[in-house]
Amino acid sequence: MEEREIRPHENKMGVLPVGKLLLSMSVPIMLSMLVQALYNIVDSVFVSRVSENALNAVSLAFPVQNLMIAVATGTGVGINALLSKSLGEKKFERANLTAANGLFLGICSAVVFAVLGALFSRTFFLVQTDVAEIVEGGTAYIQVCTICSFGIFISISVERLLQATGKTIYSMFMQMTGAIINIIFDPVFIFVFDMGVVGAAWATVLGQVVGASMGIYFNAKKNTEITVRFRGFRPDWHIIRRIYSVGVPSIIMASIGSVMTFGVNKILIGFTTTATAVFGVYFKLQSFVFMPVFGLNNGMVPIVAYNFGAQKPDRMIRTVKLAVCYATGIMVVGVTIFQLFPHLLLGLFDASDYMLEIGVPALRIICLSFLLAGFGIVSSSFFQALGHGVLSLIISLVRQLIVLLPAAWLLSLSGQLGLVWWAFPIAEIFSGILSVLFLLYAYRKEVKPMLV
To answer: Which of 96, 170, 379, 427 qualifies as a FRET site for 331, CA 20 to 30 Å off?
Structure first.
């Protein structure tokens, strides 16, 4: 990317009215993430038409995919926070170094996952099940996704550069285009080329590569606030440490979701493989509710980080309050849909009568956790924007490992599958209480001193 010397007098994140700014930053990302969520659902809908075992293969593969996303987005959070803070402090050279080192970390992560995927995909599935169709299909699916993971890592890295400088409209274009290509090619690869589950993986990879290519172009031509230079590039370990000081807790926090999913699948498969299919379907469906909230957060983090660097606490507080209100509203809509239409939601995935019998109460119980989840997600992102990623990590540990998995295991000892689903709302109550306590701590430590 060629060097540019033009610098704005004032970034919009420091001057635009907060309400208008948050919506202008978040809505494009929310729309693109809704398309991503639609892809997640359509992808599994097509796979479910192959067989229930094919759907199970994709469901059991989710922890690996989630781990890749965790590393990519966690690193992106660190890039976003440091880059936005640097721009707020008018330290443009540090911002440029952050961008270059962030892309370098994305490439390194892709290489690591390619090696791990090539060597250990089959082992991962054999640990979970001995059903040959699931093992064979899942192994091939994961190998394609990991060996070709450079698309997702580069895509998320360049997307964060656009978001950090307020260019969320371009982030929307790249995400939506990648997701739409994925949706179009899913049935082509799965059915027309008769590739089955592997076809879904190739459609995913194709969409990610297209999105990454668009992101590189937009940063080179449209992102005038940062300059990424690779000529003579050497890793800056001070910058990398600062990126990972926020990013590693975020990576671990998101990776915990992979451990939780793996653990819950092991508990559920003790009842029936259909239960794991239900859990996989739930994760696809809940993404349609959670993705807009994550999009809202991606718009909120650079605003909070920028104004933290610019010492504008009132704008930080206003941003967080609005984000909590919007996130909670989205979650209420999600709960309503899950409570009223569980049969229709499961019917999208060609659910059998037995799958409906298990799945309908499961969706109605798990969705109760949504009511507190919006507040928790916004709180965690606020901590990350302030550089307190460890607080977010603790909350995630409590929610998904310390409370949820033990609760699910204890409830499973009753021999009643229906009780296992209550572990989700129970865990959310504990994490909600902890979020309130940590918000008070962060306010006293970082925000209140700026008000004096």
So the answer is: 170
